[in-house]
């Protein structure tokens, strides 16, 4: 179990070969998070469903604002399914609050296909490197993935 009632302002995590961050404590708050996936992982990274930010499966209450997850897969065409994973069916249920989240494909191969739990916009084959895909609030995380 993680520590409860922890607030972090300015958290940066890069190049871990599993989930970049896993938050297991109750009533945690993160304001500004920057993360970049490792450059040299292969397809197994995506197959294992690693994420840039994961709220643990038993967490009932968590708030994260200003999350940015970047990809720059140098060696393999890795397609990560989603940048952020949380246990709630919908944002806001269970007390999970996420605001101002974005992903960026910096360069090279692969991509992050969606923003949160398989929802939200992601790059296409025509997308330019360096273009951010944003979810400012829950509106882009509906079942249609707008």
Instruction: Count helical runs.
Output: 1
End-to-end separation: 34 Å
**Class per helix and strand makeup:** mainly beta
With strands numbered from the N-terminus, the spatial order across the biggest sheet is 1-3-5-8-10
Q: How would a textbook summarize the main sheet?
A: 5 strands, mixed
Poorly predicted segments:
142-146
Task: Estimate the helix proportion, in percent.
Answer: under 10%
Order of SSEs: EEEHEEEEEEE
- The dominant shape is globular
Strand content: 35-45%
Number of strands: 10
Radius of gyration based on Cα positions? 14 Å
Mean pLDDT: 87
What does this structure look like?
- This protein has 146 residues and is mainly beta.
- Helix content is 3%, strand content 36%.
- The protein contains 1 helix and 10 strands; from the N terminus they run βββαβββββββ.
- Strands 1-3-5-8-10 form a 5-stranded mixed β-sheet, with no helix packed on it. It has a 3-stranded parallel β-sheet with strand order 2-4-7, with no helix packed on it. Strands 6-9 form a two-stranded parallel sheet.
- The chain is globular.
- The chain starts with 6 loop residues before the first strand and ends in an 11-residue tail after the last strand.
């Amino acid at each position: 179990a993680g520590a409860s009632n922890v607030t972090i302002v300015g958290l940066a995590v890069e190049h871990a070969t599993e989930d970049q961050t896993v938050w297991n404590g109750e009533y945690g708050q993160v304001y500004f998070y920057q993360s970049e996936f490792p450059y040299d992982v292969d397809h197994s990274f995506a197959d294992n469903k690693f994420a840039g930010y994961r709220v643990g499966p038993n967490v009932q209450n968590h708030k994260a604002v200003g999350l940015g997850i970047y990809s720059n897969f140098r060696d393999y065409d890795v397609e990560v399914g989603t940048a952020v994973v949380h246990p709630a069916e919908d944002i806001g249920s269970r007390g999970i609050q996420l605001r101002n989240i974005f992903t960026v494909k910096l360069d090279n191969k692969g991509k992050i296909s969606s923003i949160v739990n398989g929802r939200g916009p992601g790059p296409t084959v025509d997308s330019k490197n360096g273009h951010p895909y944003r979810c400012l609030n829950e509106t882009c995380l509906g079942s249609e993935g707008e």
